[in-house]
Amino acid sequence: MQIPSNLTLLRELGLELRTGSRDFLPFSNQRMEIEVPAMIGRDVFLDTETMGGGSYICTNTYARNIKSIGRFSSISENNSFGCPDHALNLITSHACIINPGKTWYTPFIDFHDATDWINNNVALFHKENENKGKIEIGNDVWIGTHVRIMNGVKIGDGAVIGSQAVVTKDVPPYTIWGGVPAKMIRKRFDDDVIERLLQIRWWDYGPEILKNTSSENIRKQLDELEERIRNGFPKKQYDKLIFDESTHQIWLQRSDKEGQELLYQLNG
Ligand SMILES: CC(C)(COP(=O)(O)OP(=O)(O)OC[C@H]1O[C@@H](n2cnc3c(N)ncnc32)[C@H](O)[C@@H]1OP(=O)(O)O)[C@@H](O)C(=O)NCCC(=O)NCCS
Predict the structure, then answer these.
(1) Residue 145 has what DSSP assignment?
(2) Closest residue (by CA) to atom 15 of ligand 1?
(3) Which residues constitute the domain of residue 167?
(4) Residue 114 carries which DSSP code?
(5) Is ligand 1 within 6 A of the CB of residue 168?
(6) What radius of gyration do the chain's Cα atoms show?
(7) Which of 185, 186, 187, 188 to mutate to test the pocket of ligand 1 (most atoms within 8 A of CB)?
(8) Predicted structure pTM score
(9) β-pair partners for 155
(10) pLDDT (0 to 100) of residue 6
(11) Is 126 a catalytic residue?
(12) DSSP string spanning 168-228?
């Protein structure tokens, strides 16, 4: 689904969409749900099942094969997540032997008359590759520039990925990682603080719960947040935009209403 940048209703509902020459579209997903407000930068290619409110992705980022992006995550520019793998267990890593043709590389070879062989190659390829799975990016994650995240990696809540990292392993919550391959640089806070942050989950309440708390002393700040929650601070509900690839429709699910409203019917 190609999403034109002139869909003013989306902007009014809180999706800042800066489309460019590349497309913003669910690549393989039939359905993508984005809570608003959110921002998707210029030349971003997005393929996630869900993205939480307050999250943003900056210019020239290729974010593919993602299951979820949490709330209030900051994804910087020139990143590349979830690039597809080629076959390592077959005689060639070239894609021509796992695709019958009719794609950009048809000029190299066309295997339309060998579909059984192609299907068998695809099955052998998937046997090795399918259990890597989709990427999961937590809440309040910050990803710097020029980062690569490999398929199946889970980035925990509050984690930070330094510029130029190649992330090949799961990243625990509230840790800072960098390098090629990425290794843990340090934890952001002491373990007791991390534990409390993960219990509190401030993003469930929205940044409103953070307002005027003691930023200079994290333990005091956590005390204050816990007290606000004990006193019934309301959880934040966000409206959701639903992009349906199969019908080329964009729907709105309001947080305070049952049912969905059709916003756009796009051309195929
Ligand atoms: C990782 C980062 C957040 C700094 O974290 P930090 O804990 O303050 O790190 P420090 O600067 O104290 O450095 C600690 C160690 O990590 C290393 N390090 C810092 N950034 C690194 C990176 N991106 N990759 C690999 N190693 C890195 C330092 O060399 C240092 O190593 P040493 O202990 O062997 O001397 C920061 O360097 C970074 O990469 N920020 C991203 C910036 C960006 O892309 N912004 C985009 C705009 S949103």
Answers:
(1) S
(2) 185
(3) 8-83+135-188+238-265
(4) G
(5) no
(6) 21
(7) 185
(8) 0.93
(9) 137, 171
(10) 66
(11) no
(12) -S-B-TTEEEETTTTEEEEESS-HHHHHHHHHH-GGGT-GGGGTT--TT-HHHHHHHHHHH
